[in-house]
Design brief:
The protein is mostly beta strands. It has two helices and twelve strands. The strands form two sheets. Strands 2, 3, 5, 6, 7, 8, 10, 11 and 12 form a nine-stranded antiparallel β-sheet that branches. The protein is globular. Bound molecules: zinc ion. Zinc ion binds next to loops.
């Protein structure tokens, strides 16, 4: 049965891997619906720099994604707890094959949506990376690296050096790090180190025009 979720094609035009390997691409999945009756709708709450979104160098083509419920609702409560968010705990899947070059699992979830406890982050090891919460960087070859951030503490299933397959479970959507509420941060970049690498555009191959727009509803097929 075909998986429904949010997929991404990471290949840049003309990109070639080491030894002439084929560029990565094809169908990828980022978020798996929690139940079969869930529709694949999602929205980008904060997008590209050109849409007024992420301005940092490596994140210029980033997406902050929340999954929506069957009536396109973002919340199933009043929004004061993480569990009120429909997307909380959704399975986050690998967008393409790759090797894990960074992963952490020790960053507490922010307790209350809308309030980021920065002292908590500054007290952790490697606090610069802790801003992304429990995050994973995947090396796809072709100088293309996926970054997925804000996963739930303790949910990350992979570690540095692991080879992952497209669609493999990586962790669960959370609110760890510098997150105003539960969401998945995804971006593609040209190096393995956030803040020091150039951001790259990525196209989702299972949404209508490939590039979800900030504030629009999209359905992943
Ligand atoms: Zn973000």
């Amino acid at each position: 049965m075909a998986k429904r979720g949010l997929g991404v094609s990471c290949a840049r035009p003309g990109a070639q891997g080491p030894g002439g390997a084929r560029p990565i691409g094809g169908r990828g999945i980022l978020l798996r619906p929690q139940a079969p009756q869930d529709r694949g709708e999602f929205t980008v709450v904060n997008g590209y720099v050109t849409e007024g979104g992420h301005t940092e160098r490596s994140q210029q083509f980033a997406y902050d994604i929340v999954a929506l419920g069957p009536r396109l609702e973002m919340l199933k409560g009043d929004g004061t707890t993480n569990e009120d968010f429909v997307c909380w705990g959704r399975e986050v899947l690998a967008p393409a094959n790759g090797v894990v070059v960074y992963a952490r699992n020790d960053v507490p979830n922010q307790a209350r949506p809308g309030a980021v406890d920065r002292k908590l982050l500054q007290a952790l090891p490697d606090p610069i990376w802790a801003a992304g919460g429990n995050c994973i960087v995947l090396d796809h070859g072709n100088d293309e690296y996926s970054y997925l951030g804000h996963l739930q503490q303790g949910s990350v299933q992979v570690g540095k050096g692991d080879h992952v397959r497209q669609g493999q479970l990586l962790g669960r959507l959370g609110s760890s790090g510098n997150a105003q509420g539960p969401h998945l941060h995804y971006h593609l970049m040209a190096g393995s180190v956030i803040y020091r690498s150039d951001g790259l555009p990525s196209r989702f191959i299972n949404v209508p025009d490939g590039i979800p727009r900030q504030g629009h509803f999209s359905e992943a097929k």
